[in-house]
Design brief:
Number of helices: 12
Radius of gyration: 24 Å
Shape: globular
CATH superfamily of the largest domain: FAD/NAD(P)-binding domain
Largest sheet: 8 strands, mixed
Number of domains: 2
CATH class of the largest domain: Alpha Beta
Helix content: 10-25%
Structural class: alpha+beta
Number of strands: 24
Strand content: 25-35%
Length: about 550
């Protein structure tokens, strides 16, 4: 294989929130990475608006949740409101669950913020190299690594980087996905949309009824930053290509319902395509897709960004484990096994949200066209209470793969367990995570470890880190277990949580670095090699149990 100018553990392609989060996670887990971004700076566009409660749990693990929340909107903005115009009468409202008010199932709150506020925080969260204005031109895999050809877009200079793995987070139009010839499945392009950013003093109408999203028949309005600024997104008009700055200002003012003579000041207009697809596979050799490169999710419901962050959280500990030598290379296969079903389910939910939104807007436009004073009937908004109430999908994701052991912690016999059985993530026989709007905490293998307080201000979720965590009401019973070479922390689980975790007085939960339960023993360890065998199985390591 040709010589390289540099060698890294992981080459990250794409400097959006998913790539930046992966960079921070890999640094936390001791992996040398390089991130390349084809643009010359972070995105100046607001784009994604919602960081949900699960994503904030990930950022809490990175120590970033407080800083991200400090630049976000107050929690009273965690609401969606339905109006005929932004300045018109309101006929329905719904809270963003996990954002508008604290929930008992998590130690954190989700936030309404703009992507261009989030990305600088993520950029500053790691010191590993990042190159702006550098584009991936080609990939070649051989001899246990990937040789990437990179081009500096300003100077035209080419460099070659050898990486053990490539993490592609380069968006819906992914260059990496195209180079690898990976197809996609799903509705595809759901339409052309335009986002218009503008300034207007709307406090008279909105200050007493704040919201993160105001939905109208003319499109959605969102406040951009706590200190000001607005965005309006809507299906692109047929004559948009010929619209002037004044035309956009007129359109915004009309959609707002401003009085004649008052105009909104337009600052920027961006056209974009609402894509809806899932890549047919997330892995090609040593290259893995994440975020929009793996699944382009419509924006309605705020699911896409958060699904991408969960991808990075799931994948990065596995890459770290393999690169540090305490996991077998087949552990990386479980990334696709676990995340592909989640992507399909998330896409279905987002597509359903979008279709319902479009239908509601269409019906209301037709009503107003026939009678400008037509009353709005809430019965026509079957989704208003579900729009952001999706804790079953946000916190109830359940993984089924070789990196999860059945209850009892005994590795199963070799089978086709890694294949997609058709069971969606978030639903598991005999467990109660619920679907869609409902979430019931469960500590069964594969589930996110339920949030329970270990001590004031310290959650069970805080026990997860760059290691496996054994939570048990009887640490002394498990201390004699040999766990080498895996990093392991043993933590005492308060006895008041034993029943909710489905444990006896000597039982234990093995929690993976991403906070999901890898194994559960309702009673004490059957023998001195119990934990060793379980860790070898969860990390897909061909390890020999120690002699007893």
């Amino acid at each position: 294989m040709a010589a390289a100018d540099a060698e890294v553990g992981v080459l990250i392609v794409g400097g959006g929130p998913v790539g930046l989060t992966a960079r921070a996670l890999l640094e936390r887990w001791g992996v040398r990475s390089l991130l390349v971004e084809r643009h010359h700076e972070l995105s100046p566009f607001p784009r994604a608006r919602l960081v949900n409660v699960r994503s904030m749990e990930i950022f809490r693990q990175l120590g970033l949740d407080t800083e991200i929340a400090s630049g976000a909107f107050a929690r009273k903005y965690g609401r969606i409101r339905f109006r005929d115009t932004l300045l018109g009468r309101e006929f329905a409202t719904a809270a963003m669950v996990g954002v508008h008010a604290p929930i008992s199932e998590s130690p954190v709150l989700g936030v309404v913020t703009s992507q261009d506020r989030l990305e600088p925080v993520l950029l500053a969260a790691a010191d590993t190299p990042m190159r702006f204005g550098v584009e991936l031109a080609d990939l070649t895999e051989a001899d246990g690594s990937v040789l990437a050809s990179l081009v500096d877009r300003a100077r035209g200079a080419r460099t070659r980087v050898r990486a053990r793995y490539v993490l592609a987070a380069d968006g819906a139009n992914s260059t990496v996905r195209r180079l690898l010839g990976i197809d996609t499945a799903g509705p595809g392009a759901m339409g052309d949309f335009t986002t218009v950013m503008f300034d207007a003093d709307l406090s008279r109408w909105c200050a007493h009824q704040p919201a993160g999203v105001y939905l109208t028949p003319q499109g959605a309005f969102t406040p951009l930053y706590p200190e000001g600024g607005w965005a309006w997104f809507f299906p692109t008009p047929e004559d948009a290509a010929h619209a002037t700055h004044d035309d956009w200002s007129t359109l915004v003012s009309r959609a707002l319902g401003l009085d004649p003579g008052r105009r909104a000041e337009v600052s920027r207009v961006q056209g974009w395509v609402m894509n809806a697809f899932v890549a047919e596979r997330f892995r090609h050799g040593r290259t893995l897709l994440a975020g929009d490169a793996a699944h382009a999710v419509p924006v309605i419901g705020g699911l896409g960004l958060n699904a991408g962050l969960a991808d990075a959280h799931n994948l990065c500990w596995k890459l770290a484990a393999v690169l540090h030598g305490w996991a077998g290379p087949d552990l990386v296969d479980t990334y696709e096994t676990e995340r592909h079903p989640v992507a399909r389910r998330t896409l279905r939910q987002a597509v359903d949200n979008t279709k319902l939104m479009v239908e509601v807007q269409k019906q209301r436009r037709e009503q107003l066209g026939a009678d400008p004073e037509a009353p709005a009937r809430q019965a026509e908004l079957p989704w208003s209470e579900q729009y952001f109430a999706q804790m079953g999908l946000v916190l109830g994701v359940t993984y089924h793969s070789d990196a999860v052991l059945p209850d009892g912690g005994t590795p199963p016999e070799p089978s086709d367990a890694g294949a997609d059985s058709g069971t969606d993530a978030g639903t598991a026989a005999g467990t109660g995570t619920g679907t869609g709007t409902e979430y019931v905490p469960a500590a069964a293998p594969g589930h996110r470890m339920p949030h329970l307080w270990l001590a004031p201000g310290r959650s069970t979720l805080d026990a997860a880190g760059e290691w496996f965590t054994l939570l048990t009401p009887d640490p002394a019973r498990w201390e004699g277990q040999r766990a080498t070479p895996w990093p392991l922390h043993v933590e005492a689980l308060p006895h008041e949580h034993v029943d909710v975790c489905g444990l006896g007085p000597h039982g234990a939960l093995l929690v993976r670095p991403d906070g999901h339960v890898g194994a559960r023993w309702r009673e004490g360890p059957p023998d001195d090699a119990t934990l060793h065998r379980a860790l070898a199985a969860v990390t897909v390591t061909r390890a020999t149990p120690p002699s007893t």
